[in-house]
Amino acid sequence: MTVWTISAQEGTGGGLLAAELAAAARVPVFDREALAALAHELDPALPELVDLEARFGRFTMLSLSAALSVGSVDAFQEVELRQKLPTLGRAILGEAARSPCVIYLPAAFAALQDHPAAIHVRLRASLESRVANYQREHLVNRQCAEKALRHADHRTQAWVKSLYRTDIDDERHYALVLDASRFSHDRFVEILLAAGGMQTELVGA
Predict the structure, then answer these.
(1) Is beta strand 101-104 parallel, antiparallel or unpaired with respect to 3-8?
(2) Domains of the chain, with CATH numbers?
(3) I need a labelling partner for 151 at 20 to 30 A (CA). Which of 92, 157, 161, 200 fits?
(4) What's the pTM?
(5) Residue 4 pLDDT > 60, yes or no?
């Protein structure tokens, strides 16, 4: 049984790669939407995943401490949520990983660090390559694309660090770190299937 987790920088086509890998391996893919459905089965009161990531940017540790000191209800709720999410995240991803699948989520590698069948993959590329991809996809100028990518990188790094106290860019966390600008998606799928001990002939079958 193989579970692939894919943590991809914005602008690398990680979502498409995850979908193509899942199709080739004939397993389900769990992205934000699918995992959100699982999350609400476990805890119906949990906010939407996108809202959660945005909320983690509202308070720095300094501002959170200051807000707590004056009895801010929002701050106390934020602390409670931060304490709850890592355990809930592990439960949600653990449920998804009970059978072979592809999980496309930045923090999945951290939540499933000890999963015996997990292959953790980091998909990255140079800023230049990602900017060009983002411009093509969103039809924006270079300045807008670079600003969006830098913001996405910062938010994702902060989200993973807040949840699991780990660095998403530390390559020691991953079995494979792949440069998205170097090969086609078909080649990446072949590499990831082989890493999972599957026959590459499944590609295109």
Answers:
(1) parallel
(2) 3-202 (3.40.50.300)
(3) 92
(4) 0.81
(5) yes
